[in-house]
Amino acid sequence: MNRSKLHTYDDVADRVAERLDVADPSKIRFTRHNYYLKKPESNPIQYRFEGHLPDMLRHYIQDYGIMYYEVLNTSLPELQHMKTLRVAFYDATITKEEPAIHNISLPKQSTVGDVLTEIKKTVIVTFDFD
């Protein structure tokens, strides 16, 4: 991809989506490269970032020319209104130390009841009455 200094966030998203054959560019999330850790930064670039491509590639004051992308199932505008919870479920009937980890995405205004309803969809609970 031609690295034009004039490319905006939308230009980059459109070109990457075209290259990857993704119909909706808003489902592509970008993350800068962390030079010190040699991996993606923990926080992705904000959707519709107000800078240009060089700004997207910059880690502090250095431009490393590395940026990561991931294709999401949900568009970034929808995802901004969601909160992802990581729920560890310990099964009392199985004697293992590792919990089952479930990632649950819900609207930010969801209640604990909504979380429990969503967990019920992913966790199979069985009771043994001996």
Q: How is this structure best described in words?
A:
- It catalyses: Thiol-dependent hydrolysis of ester, thioester, amide, peptide and isopeptide bonds formed by the C-terminal Gly of ubiquitin (a 76-residue protein attached to proteins as an intracellular targeting signal).
- Residues 4-57 form the Ubiquitin carboxyl-terminal hydrolase 7 ICP0-binding domain.
- The protein has helices at residues 9-20, 53-57, 76-80, 112-122, and strands at residues 28-34, 39-40, 58-59, 62-63, 67-71, 82-89, 100-107.
- The protein has 130 residues and is of the alpha+beta class.
- It has a 3-stranded antiparallel β-sheet with strand order 2-1-5.
- The longest helix is centred in the first third of the chain and has 12 residues, at 9-20.
- The protein is elongated, with a radius of gyration of 20 Å.
- The model has no long low-confidence stretch (mean pLDDT 81).
Short structural description:
It contains four helices and seven strands.
Write the layout of secondary structure elements.
Elements: H1 9-20, E1 28-34, E2 39-40, H2 53-57, E3 58-59, E4 62-63, E5 67-71, H3 76-80, E6 82-89, E7 100-107, H4 112-122
Antiparallel strand pairs: 1-2, 1-5, 3-4, 6-7
